[in-house]
Amino acid sequence: MKQKKFWQAGAVLLAATALTACGSSKKSSSSKQDLSWSVAGEITTMDPSKATDVVSFTQMVNTMEGLYRSSKNGQTPGLATSATVSKDGLTYTFNLRKSTWSDGSPVTAKDFVYSWRRTVNPKTESEYAYLFSGIKNADSIQNGKKPVSSLGIKAVSKYQLVVTLEKRMAYFKDLMAFPVFFPQQEKAVKKYGDKYGTASKYMAYNGPFVQKGWTGSNLSWKLEKNSKYWDKSSVKLNQISYSVNKTPSTAYNLYESNKLDGFGLDSNLTKQFKGKSAYHSLANGGTYYLELNEKNQNLANANIRKAISLSINRKNLTSILGGNNLPANTYTAKDLTKVNGEDYTSMIDASAKKMATYNPSLAKKYWKKGLAELGKSSLTLNLLTSDTDSAKKTGEALQSMLESNLSGLKLTVTSVPFKTRLARRENGNFQLCGSDWIADFGDPISFLELLTSANASNYGSWKNSEYDRLIKASKATNDQNERMKDMSQAESIMLKDCGVVPVYYEDDAWMIRPNVKGWLCTRADWDFKNAYIK
To answer: What confidence tens digit (pLDDT) does each residue in 328-349 have?
Structure first.
């Protein structure tokens, strides 16, 4: 999130067993229902087919709606009033409620068909199209072998939708609350063309709120209650005012002056407010990690990658950053999935995890060996980060650690706006990149599929045929134990080779005014449909 990839901002969808939700659902006693909220980064797009970050996905969750919505107990009906599944588990039939777009036109089954076809169409270049794998013909369409019209989705009537799978998908229903599977109004997409999703006015909405005032580059905008929403009686807030605050100190000052109702904390503020009534610790199912671009000759060397990983003192780094972050020795986030009562990450080979621990003496040995293989005595590398306060601190700490442990290394750090970092990353215009991933749903595949050789989100271009085989095998069975075994073996292979370098697990700390009730927090995504101010 696609990637949802941002500090204090993930992915949206979770399996029922992995969902973290917080809040209250009492009815409002206040006549003024205006909320002010801080985010740490810009919106990149409002196009469900092209979004990859949680700031954008959070906007979509509040302004659009699919078959289901995430809830504290898994999923709750959105536009689907009922669903039936065939005995072989390959055909889903959804009956849709009558609802409308913000312009008053009906939302129909055809809007889902159009949206899904648009996303899997190679011409759209959707980075999240891979999530459709398993739906009939999705892979063949993305590979240019079959027409988009052959996708396994059909509108059998105005309000009935049938989806056909090629194989059972253990997490299929979980996907349906994720924005990439939301309907899109064909009329709006064609009317706005290249402008679609680039500003508030170039969109059609069918969710609890409509967005106003986002121009495509500004740092403030609003969500207003959608009078056309089918469940508008449940929506208590009249307005949500968003502002981008890249430094927590700025957000804190706004909070103290009653101009914000919620904002994310940094290390100093976490220490200051932990235990207070307005303080909330929110597990977000995310991992911060380094991507190493293997199109760069130096980083294509496994020994250089291993030296970099072993030079990072993750305990010290998380201490510097503060908050609730913990040192990471796996790519998949902790506590995402349970396997026979144990965390999935416990299945990963212990020797693989050691490659993501601090061992400067071993790092020096790998570094010396890597330089010899490259025929060099020194290297200059660049680390790309976002320009948020936490990202800058992370970059500075990594620069100090790597340069002090790896003789002959000069590491420069480039900090750019979030949207710029995403663009440079997606274009392969980086050497090392500080990234994060927040699970789209509560299954390790949400992380691990990204590193398969053909995945569009494999920005570091790490490739391993055995890894690919194991991930493919995990998706071909519904035996959960077998699936987890395949995925843990694959992750062990990747960690030993340092395909990416895990740094820390992300848990967010927030200050939220006690009179703000009914909000839902799922993996760093905020849903305000049932929120109100008491």
So the answer is: 999 999 988 889 999 999 999 9
Total domain count, the chain: 2
Residues 6+ apart with CB under 8 A from 169: 134, 175
As to burial, measured by CB atoms within 10 angstroms (0-12 exposed, 13-18 middle, 19+ buried), residue 164 is middle
- Domain that residue 141 falls in: 34-240+513-533
CA distances from residue 96 to 107, 171, 228 in whole angstroms, order as listed: 9, 21, 16
CA angle 462, 463, 468 (to 5 degrees): 130
Radius of gyration of the chain (CA): 23
- Residues whose CB is less than 8 angstroms from the CB of residue 325 and which lie 6 or more positions away in sequence, other chains included: 288, 318, 504, 505, 506, 507
Rounded to whole angstroms, the Cα distance separating 40 from 245 reads 5
CA dihedral over 495, 500, 502, 508, signed as positive or negative = negative
pTM higher than the cut 0.90: no
**How large is the angle between the packed helices 360-374 and 389-405, nearest 10 degrees?**
80
Which helix (H) or strand (E) covers residue 533, if one does? strand 532-533
Supply the DSSP symbol for 135.
Answer: B
Name the one residue in this structure whose structure tokens are 């290394």: 409
Give the max Cα distance, the chain: 72
Residues 498 and 522 both lie in one domain:
no
Phi and psi angles of residue 18, each rounded to the nearest 5 degrees, phi first: -115, 5
DSSP letters for 47-64 = -TTT--SHHHHHHHHHH-
Shared domain for 325 and 367, answered yes or no, is yes
Q: Cα–Cα distance between 222 and 35 in angstroms, integer? A: 10
User: Is the CB of residue 474 less than 8 Å from the CB of residue 445?
Assistant: yes
Q: Which amino acid is at 497?
A: D
Shared domain for 461 and 526, answered yes or no, is: no
pLDDT at 31: 58
Q: 126-166 pLDDT, tens per residue?
A: 999 999 999 999 999 999 999 999 999 999 999 999 999 99
Task: Return the bridge partners of 533, or none.
Answer: 516
- Tokens standing for 514? 């006690």
